[in-house]
């Protein structure tokens, strides 16, 4: 059995997860039965669906989602998605935003673990390695609907999913709440420098002081992004001594050799300075508060920042004066006083 999550509770219930079905996490569509009216790749767009009433393209009305033809002769339409990272799925959301007279009436989700499977193999309708993560559930028009997955599903790693839409119609977004699983450490060699905070390795942003413009979860995504919209930006502060902060749980607890704070695309709205603190593994809460006494300096004091720049702090910039060999489990990035950053990376060696 799956448990449906009330609409008002979706964001709260899955607050400490990552949406694995996100094109910014390198997830991509491999194949689909039909995408006549709107492309299935729209399902993976990280931002909410938008509406453009009265806008028409060659195939019909423009929709921000996946929409198939009418009168499907099969029981359902389908789309196969390759996740950007192997991960566990704790919840599934099917969002039918703006699909009213043309929404898919039911949804079903299958998943598989096939790290060595070819795209052609997983795209083939005859592939038999799928397991049901979400059984057939009803969907309503223009609304978010989400379900917690059974224990077996939320503790099993998956690499691909197959979404079914009964019998045809449109879905705006698919969101798969969970976390990525880091690849195993290289065997028989010294631990290399890795991005311990990356969402691809299971890093999760747990909380933030302010997410007025864009979510703090963007700062641990791979790459440098496209524009300000895929970074983290807070509201303008007016009070004295104001700071904003974001707290992340490292996907891989470990030492710290380098801290990267990237302000790419933030030119008139970057922070004046940043500071970085950490919590040593085993010394704090799993979801620490911003004022927890367990926080210790990783960077030595506040570090000035510049517009549209990838700042790399290492060596004497670190509180340890060199690679910090203590093992950290959580980190906190503080913006002085506010503003926006694109990416925040903790580079080190897994414990």
From TrEMBL:
Pfam family, any one: Allantoicase
Tell me, which GO biological process terms does this entry list?
allantoin catabolic process; purine nucleobase metabolic process
Reading the lineage from the top rank, the first entry is Eukaryota
Report the EC code(s) recorded for this entry: 3.5.3.4
Q: Carries keyword Nucleotidyltransferase?
A: no
- Name the reaction it catalyses: allantoate + H2O = (S)-ureidoglycolate + urea
Query: What GO MF annotations does this protein's record show?
Result: allantoicase activity
Residue ranges constituting the Allantoicase domain according to the UniProt record: 27-180, 202-350
Supply the name of the protein: allantoicase
């Amino acid at each position: 059995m799956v448990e449906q999550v009330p609409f008002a509770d979706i964001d709260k219930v899955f607050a400490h997860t990552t949406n694995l079905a996100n094109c910014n996490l390198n997830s991509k569509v491999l194949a689909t039965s039909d995408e006549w009216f709107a492309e299935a790749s729209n399902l993976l767009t990280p931002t909410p669906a938008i509406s453009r009433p009265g806008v028409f393209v060659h195939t019909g009305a423009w929709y921000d989602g996946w929409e198939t033809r009418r009168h499907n002769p099969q029981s359902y339409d389908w789309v196969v998605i390759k996740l950007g990272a192997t991960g566990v799925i704790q919840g599934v959301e099917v969002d039918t935003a703006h699909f009213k007279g043309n929404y898919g009436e039911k949804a079903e989700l299958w998943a598989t673990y096939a790290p060595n499977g070819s795209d052609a193999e997983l795209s083939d309708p005859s592939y038999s390695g799928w397991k049901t993560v979400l059984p057939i559930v009803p969907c309503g028009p223009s609304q978010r609907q989400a379900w917690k997955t059974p224990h077996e599903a939320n503790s099993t790693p998956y690499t691909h999913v197959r979404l079914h839409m009964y019998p045809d119609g449109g879905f705006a977004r698919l969101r798969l709440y969970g976390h990525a699983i880091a690849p195993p450490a290289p065997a028989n060699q010294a631990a290399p420098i890795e991005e311990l905070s990356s969402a691809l390795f299971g890093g999760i942003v747990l909380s933030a002081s302010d997410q007025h413009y864009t979510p703090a979860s963007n700062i641990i995504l791979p790459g440098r992004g496209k524009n300000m919209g895929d970074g983290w930006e807070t509201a303008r502060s007016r009070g004295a001594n104001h700071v904003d902060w974001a707290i992340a749980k490292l996907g891989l607890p470990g030492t710290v050799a380098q801290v990267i704070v990237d302000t790419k695309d933030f030119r008139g709205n970057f922070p004046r300075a940043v500071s970085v603190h950490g919590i040593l593994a085993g010394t704090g809460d799993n979801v620490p508060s911003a004022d927890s006494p367990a926080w210790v300096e990783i960077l030595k004091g506040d570090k000035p920042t510049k517009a549209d720049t990838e700042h790399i702090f290492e060596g004497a910039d670190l509180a340890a004066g060199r690679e910090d060999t203590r093992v950290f489990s959580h980190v906190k990035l503080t913006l002085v006083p506010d503003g926006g950053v694109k990416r925040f990376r903790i580079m080190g060696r897994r414990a």
